[in-house]
Design goal:
Strand content: 35-45%
Helix content: 10-25%
Radius of gyration: 22 Å
Largest sheet: 6 strands, antiparallel
Shape: globular
Structural class: mainly beta
Length: 203
């Protein structure tokens, strides 16, 4: 009986531990670069303009959230705004290699008059220091839905470059700009998550 009990214990341990070991293996292609909004470095000129709440960095507040269809974009007229800048260092992860195109997904909010979120992926050349903007997310682009609260939208660079990221000769960072109205109380712009991945655009 003791030998039988030991066998059952070993079998149960295997059933419990073997699936865990298998699920812990993450394919290299799934290792995207990801950051939360609150992890960035605030530009010194933007101190006091934003607040941090767990994963979120946000500028401005919304007291009453109107339906999504009622969220106006700034069009014409005089709309006084001010902005805060946050920068995020992009580090090398396996999921950024091996594909010809780049994708950037942003979980953001841009609500009320003058609210806008812009995130730019910038490449810096090690030899020359030259900076090139590789990809831009802009909540004011026509293809970005206007919704209440935080939601996700992705932009793609389908330029077909053979080596989207080259961490041997380049460095990368994301510069995010949160803009809100300086005269309208119900205006908010924020970022909760930014994710980068190497992908293949569907032709």
């Amino acid at each position: 009986m003791r030998s039988s009990n030991v066998q059952w214990i070993l079998l149960a341990a295997c059933l419990l531990l073997c699936p865990l070991g298998a699920s812990a293996q993450t394919p290299d292609g799934d290792r995207f670069w990801t950051t939360v909004g609150s992890a960035g470095t605030l530009d010194e000129k933007s101190e006091g303009l934003v607040f941090f709440d767990r994963a979120v960095v946000q500028k401005g507040h919304t007291i009453i959230i109107a339906p999504a269809s009622g969220q106006p974009r700034a069009e014409g007229g005089i709309d006084l705004t001010d902005s805060a800048v946050i920068r995020y260092n992009v580090t090398a992860v396996d999921g950024l290699f091996g594909a010809r195109d780049i994708g950037m997904a942003v979980r953001f909010r841009a609500e009320g008059r003058g609210a806008r979120v812009v995130a730019q992926l910038i490449e810096v050349d090690l030899a020359t220091g030259a900076e090139v903007t590789r990809l831009t997310f802009d909540s004011d682009d026509p293809g970005v839905p206007v919704l209440s609260g935080y939601h996700v939208h992705e932009v793609l660079d389908c330029g077909g470059r053979a080596e989207p990221f080259d961490f041997m000769r380049k460095a990368y960072y994301i510069e995010a700009t949160l803009t809100t109205s300086s005269v309208v109380v119900e205006s908010a712009a924020g970022i909760e998550i930014i994710q980068l991945n190497a992908t293949t655009c569907i032709k």
